[in-house]
């Protein structure tokens, strides 16, 4: 047939460029008459360059030279060579070279993440022909990671980490940089650039949220049922380990289903497929489930009937702060079949001023006002109702005398006298609403069993003996098989920077409570201790107190401003999890800027700037919806959201001008 070679010229690599064919020992081009993606598919397959991403016309890679060998090529897509496709004949039309065709191929036939604890985290590899190639850390960015996670049905991108040094210098390395916009459905569709520097010191590790979809099954509406999550292309039931109202509310909001009303432990539980053993530890402020910390610690086990379930208020119910009560008649549309006596009243309950959401001062929302409860006759039975109502397990302690600080405003209830069996605190006998003989120094508080927390004891906030609060009790963590990487993960978890080490001098003393966990193993992919693997919870995990863990953290998180005329004005950037990133300008105001300026030693804020006033940054966008009061000592002390569920790009980078 005469033709013996095919190539792509003038592109970013061997898998993109102007289509050229060698025929009768001369290289020539292909004219773009009726050039389609099916034609490009045959070119890519013939060159072993994966699949076709684009079929291009009008000399996109420059004009070629020599004869125009092929014209009006018409491929089905399954031919083995381009010249096996239908065409009028070799050299049948003298086509000007400004009609030369071009092709962009994927260059690879697959991608995967390897070496992580799941298929949704690990070292990034792409398949070239029959070999898997490693992608360099410097060749991708966060938008590219987002495309990768989406293509793998692994949810949102969480992080990109600098992986290990290459141990095998003969390992194939992918030679192109990816420059995704972020809305591509496949990595193959992203623009790429040939990387001229052949060296690659670290591979890219991509961390995805792990779940690519979510739904409620077996309910009477789309807003009630058993929680099912899509993981690696398979739907499975979420285990009910640590499942509580804050986690359920985060999911309801993510589904546009309002707020969580209740968690029916005996409804919707029959299902097929795997049971996902991950758990979500939510604080109560998250707008979606992926914002919550994922918990693997403690190696939870779960059967198919131990399923997470929820009944949400419904798609029109985001303003309905719903309660279950004995003296209300109204049932919200869409939940009557599942609930029974749920009303659209305005009463709510929360715990305030504790370090986590399952401990704090008890506050009630009534008649549009938040208020407290007097500690007269306050005991464990009352506290049990509060913990149960909040999905926080059972009460460990009922606190009096404003243990969690004095509240303000109304004191709504006094002389509360629950049996412990009530479903809501306002179903318990008490004085009438607003009738009391108390002051705020008598505000009641509770500590619940599903309060899960971490701390360092007998040193300072960032050095000491490591303890975890579980099942109502603080206890030690054993150090067997613990690596420095695990110590670093603890420091990240506690916002104590990106450096840490296991102290061997035992200067922080010995514990006295349970020894809850042993054999904790964290990897570079983990930013929270809850995500790490460990033995199951056991109060006798250590053989003796000498195995308790002592940790010292270094390298506290950093803050800087970039692009201004000095170190006191510019784009706000924070160092977190090993890289600098920016802050989204949503809700950014002078109170937030004041905290930044004071933390930098730059006086007070002159202005809080938005829309990348000092230029667009790069890397992750670590925070959005920052809500400082202005009195905080550090930006990390302000309430804020992470960005796993929102769309914010660098044109919205926040900035400050300090005095």
UniProtKB/TrEMBL annotation:
GO cellular component, one term: extracellular region
InterPro entries: SRCR (IPR001190), SRCR-like_dom_sf (IPR036772)
DNA repair is among the record's keywords: no
Record's keyword terms, sorted: Cell membrane, Disulfide bond, Glycoprotein, Membrane, Repeat, Secreted, Signal, Transmembrane, Transmembrane helix
Membrane topology reported for the UniProt record: Single-pass type I membrane protein
Highest taxon in the source lineage: Eukaryota
Principal localisation: membrane
Localization per Swiss-Prot or TrEMBL: Cell membrane; Secreted
Cross-referenced Pfam families: SRCR (PF00530)
PANTHER family: SCAVENGER RECEPTOR CYSTEINE-RICH TYPE 1 PROTEIN M160 (PTHR19331:SF468), SCAVENGER RECEPTOR DOMAIN-CONTAINING (PTHR19331)
Protein name as annotated: SRCR domain-containing protein
Taxonomic source organism: Spheniscus mendiculus
């Amino acid at each position: 047939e005469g033709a013996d070679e095919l190539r792509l010229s003038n592109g970013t690599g061997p898998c993109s460029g102007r289509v050229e064919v060698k025929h009768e020992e001369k290289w020539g081009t292909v004219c773009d008459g009726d050039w389609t993606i099916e034609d490009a598919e045959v070119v890519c397959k013939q060159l072993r360059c994966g699949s076709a991403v684009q079929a291009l016309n009008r000399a996109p890679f420059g004009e070629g030279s020599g004869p125009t060998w092929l014209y009006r090529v018409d491929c089905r897509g399954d031919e083995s060579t381009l010249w096996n496709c239908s065409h009028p004949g070799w050299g049948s039309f003298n086509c000007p070279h400004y009609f030369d065709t071009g092709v962009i191929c994927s260059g690879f036939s697959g991608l995967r993440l390897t070496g992580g604890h799941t298929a949704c985290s690990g070292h990034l590899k792409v398949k070239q022909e029959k070999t898997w190639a490693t992608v360099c850390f410097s060749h991708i960015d966060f938008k590219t990671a987002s495309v990768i996670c989406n293509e793998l049905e692994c949810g949102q991108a969480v992080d990109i980490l600098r992986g290990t040094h290459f141990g095998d210098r003969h390992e194939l390395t992918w030679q192109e940089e990816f420059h995704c916009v972020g809305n591509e459905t496949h990595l193959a569709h992203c623009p790429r650039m040939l990387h001229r520097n052949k060296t690659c010191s670290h591979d890219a590790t991509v961390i995805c949220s792990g779940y690519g979809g979510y739904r409620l099954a077996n309910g009477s509406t789309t807003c009630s049922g058993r929680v099912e999550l899509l993981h690696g292309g398979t739907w499975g039931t979420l285990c009910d380990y640590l499942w509580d109202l804050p986690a359920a509310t985060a999911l309801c909001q993510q589904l546009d289903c309002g707020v969580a009303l209740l968690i029916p432990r005996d409804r919707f539980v029959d299902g097929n497929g795997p049971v996902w053993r991950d758990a979500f530890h939510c604080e109560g402020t998250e707008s979606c489930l992926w914002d919550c910390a994922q918990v693997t610690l403690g190696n939870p086990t779960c059967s198919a009937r131990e399923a997470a379930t929820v009944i949400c208020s419904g798609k029109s119910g985001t303003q309905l702060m719903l309660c279950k009560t004995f003296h209300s008649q109204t049932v919200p549309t869409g939940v009557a079949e599942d609930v029974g006596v749920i009303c659209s009243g305005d009463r709510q309950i929360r715990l305030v001023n504790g370090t986590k959401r399952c401990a704090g001062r008890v506050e009630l929302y009534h008649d549009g006002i938040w208020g407290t409860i007097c500690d007269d006759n306050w005991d464990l039975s009352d506290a049990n109702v509060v913990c149960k109502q909040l999905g926080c397990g059972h009460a460990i302690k009922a606190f009096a005398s404003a243990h969690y600080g004095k509240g303000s405003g109304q004191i709504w209830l006094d002389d509360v006298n629950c049996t412990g069996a009530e479903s809501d605190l306002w179903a318990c006998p008490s004085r009438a609403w607003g009738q009391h003989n108390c002051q705020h120094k008598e505000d009641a508080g509770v500590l619940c069993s599903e309060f899960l927390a971490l701390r360092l004891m007998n040193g300072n906030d960032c050095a000491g003996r490591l303890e975890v609060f579980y099942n109502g009790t603080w206890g030690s963590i054993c150090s067997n098989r613990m690596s420095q990487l695990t110590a670093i993960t603890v420091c990240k978890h506690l916002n104590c920077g990106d450096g840490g080490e296991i102290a061997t001098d035992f200067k922080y003393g010995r514990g006295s409570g349970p020894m809850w966990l042993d054999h904790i193993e964290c990897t570079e992919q983990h930013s929270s201790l809850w995500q790490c693997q460990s033995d199951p919870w056991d109060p006798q995990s250590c053989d003796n107190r000498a195995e308790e863990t002592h940790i010292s953290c270094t390298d506290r998180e950093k803050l800087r401003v970039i692009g201004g005329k000095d170190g006191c004005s510019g784009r706000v950037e924070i160092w977190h999890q090993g890289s600098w990133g920016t802050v989204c300008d949503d809700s950014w105001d002078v109170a937030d800027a004041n905290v930044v300026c004071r933390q930098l030693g730059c006086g007070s804020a002159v202005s809080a700037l938005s829309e990348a006033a000092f230029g667009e940054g790069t890397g992750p966008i670590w925070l959005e919806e920052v809500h400082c009061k202005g009195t905080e000592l550090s930006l990390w002390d302000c309430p804020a959201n992470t960005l796993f569920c929102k769309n914010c790009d660098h044109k919205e980078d926040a900035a400050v001008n300090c005095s």
